[in-house]
Specification:
The protein contains 13 helices and 18 strands. The protein is an alpha+beta fold. The protein has four domains: about 90 residues, Uridine Diphospho-n-acetylenolpyruvylglucosamine Reductase, domain 2 (2-Layer Sandwich); about 120 residues, Uridine Diphospho-n-acetylenolpyruvylglucosamine Reductase, domain 3, CATH 3.30.465.10; about 110 residues, Alpha-Beta Plaits (2-Layer Sandwich); about 70 residues, Alpha-Beta Plaits. The mean pLDDT is about 95. The protein binds flavin-adenine dinucleotide. Flavin-adenine dinucleotide (FAD) binds next to β3, α4, β10 and α10.
């Protein structure tokens, strides 16, 4: 159904792009065929490393005439196969579009190209006293990828997700037209919010070629508390009480001893507290040291005296901060290293249901004899659950995965939750989303896709 790329097409691309930015055959690394999860694999026919909006527009004009599928790729750190070129064609690699274009201090807006890495945004703005709040775990992801997946992260409880920090985007449509959605403005009720539709559309509607990011003053003080509980459920059950108190946490994470053990093994470093089985990690920040101190004291007092915490450990020394946050940052990769293969579930449920969902996964572990380590964002109801293959045979694991996913997504639905809190749908979660949202919503989504991409050349096979 799609045109296969031939010599004539390559000659056309070479007429306006240098040869070294057009990769074919064995010059294409295997990495371009998969993302970080590695469960969905398909090979591109050509990889083009783009440098400008105009180049992208020219490639799309040609591809839409010839019916060549195009998949955009940032750093490839996605976990649901969203950047995998299911139908071959072209992979557009945006990582060379990595310039920070403008810091507009009067309007508190940072203008960047899509291939700028998240960690480079932090290291550019923070020494100047500015804050870009979204805090997804993988700092080597591109901002284009973060916007395309509406990445979440640990500070979502207080500051929201990527969508809340994007003022405007420049995009290239599948037709090759260039347009800017939104402006450097704080409010916008100017028609349908096409900007917000593109954010989170996982590269299926348009290519983000420039981003105008909101900044705010950098909090002057940040303090974390590590709060051990007897069991994970006991700790998670207390999170709504912490959120109802006036302590206003920035992050509320949960994890257990088993997950810490994987991180210790992966990093070769010991977690600061060897005694307890389950933890809630709370962070507080603000502009006023006294105010932050008061919030920390309020939360510590509540946890110790009313919520049944075993202890409260202040994460204040550089050594302790390093050990706790390094461990937290390594959980996903540490679990991956603990097994032969795994797949993940990124459900989001109402906050009050998190511990019930965790308990439900214990039942699944017993029922299917499979390991399902987990950790997650207790403050926003987003759980990360990893179904591990270990020494199961391939067909047995495929069968177990199918059944466990079906039960998990059904349970999330029953609890008023959704398939994905932050990692997206891509290809891996498509059928589960279709099942949960049903035909009316799917028809609306398919209609939107048709309006943007009538020839279905942009990231075909994903989401809808
Ligand atoms: C260790 C680890 C921790 C993680 N933690 C988090 C977390 O806390 N929160 C979270 O939300 N995610 C997390 N992720 C998932 C991943 O990092 C995010 O989904 C990230 O936003 C992907 O960015 P990327 O540049 O790697 O995009 P890719 O993986 O390359 O692409 C992802 C999707 O975005 C599209 N895309 C990329 N660039 C563009 C563009 N310029 N225009 C249009 N579409 C584009 C692609 O087509 C694809 O559909 C984690 C991943 C890992 C490996």
């Amino acid at each position: 159904m799609y045109h296969k790329i031939n010599n004539q097409d390559l000659q056309y691309f070479k007429s306006f792009l240098p040869e070294e930015r057009i990769l074919t055959g064995t010059a294409i690394s295997e990495d371009y065929s998969k993302d970080e999860m590695g469960t969905i694999v398909a090979h591109p026919e050509v990889v083009i490393k783009v440098l400008s909006t105009e180049e992208i527009a020219a490639i799309f004009k040609y591809a839409s005439e010839k019916l060549i599928p195009i998949t955009v790729r940032g750093s490839g750190t996605g976990l649901v196969g969203a950047c995998v070129p299911l139908y071959g064609g072209i992979v557009l690699d945006t990582t060379l579009m990595n310039r920070i274009l403008e810091l507009d201090e009067e309007n508190l807006v940072l203008v960047v190209e899509p291939g700028v890495l998240l960690m480079d945004i932090y290291s550019f703005v923070e020494p100047k006293g500015y804050f870009y709040a979204p805090d997804p775990g993988e700092k080597s992801a591109t901002i284009g990828g973060n916007i395309a997946t509406n990445a979440g992260g640990m500070r979502a409880v207080k500051y929201g997700v990527t969508r809340d920090w994007v003022r405007a985007i420049e995009v290239v449509l599948p037709s090759g037209e260039i347009t800017q959605l939104g402006r450097k403005v704080v409010k916008d009720t100017t028609g349908y919010s096409l900007k917000n539709l593109i954010i989170g559309s996982e590269g299926t509607l348009a290519v983000i070629t420039k981003a105008y990011l909101k900044l705010s003053p950098l909090p002057s003080k940040t303090v974390s508390l590590l709060v051990p509980f007897k069991t994970l459920e006991q700790g998670i059950d207390q999170v709504p009480h912490i959120l109802q108190s006036r302590s206003d946490p920035t992050a509320v994470e949960f994890f257990g001893r088993e997950t810490i053990g994987f991180a210790e093994m992966f990093l070769g470093k010991k977690f600061p507290d060897p005694h307890n089985q389950a933890y809630i990690l709370l962070t507080f920040d603000g502009q006023d040291d006294k105010d932050v101190k008061a919030k920390v004291e309020r939360a510590a007092d509540l946890c110790l005296n009313e919520l049944g915490a075993e202890d409260v450990l202040i994460v204040d020394t550089e050594e302790r901060k390093d050990l706790v946050w390094k461990a937290r940052g390594a959980f996903l990769e540490a679990i991956k290293a603990s097994t032969t293969q795994m797949d993940e579930c990124d459900v989001v449920v109402p906050r009050a249901k998190v511990s019930e969902f965790v308990k439900f996964t214990y039942d699944l572990t017993k029922k299917y004899q499979v390991r399902i380590p987990s950790f997650g964002h207790a403050g926003d109801g987003n759980l990360h659950l990893y179904i591990c293959k270990d020494d199961m045979a391939d067909d047995q694991f495929a069968d177990v995965l199918e059944k466990v996913f079906a039960e998990m997504y059904n349970q999330a639905d029953q609890m008023g939750g959704l398939i994905s809190g932050e990692h997206g749908i891509g290809f891996a979660k498509k059928k589960y989303m279709q099942h949960l949202l049903g035909p009316t919503q799917m028809a609306l989504m398919q209609g939107i896709k048709k309006v943007f991409d009538p020839n279905n050349i942009l990231n075909p096979g994903k989401i809808v």
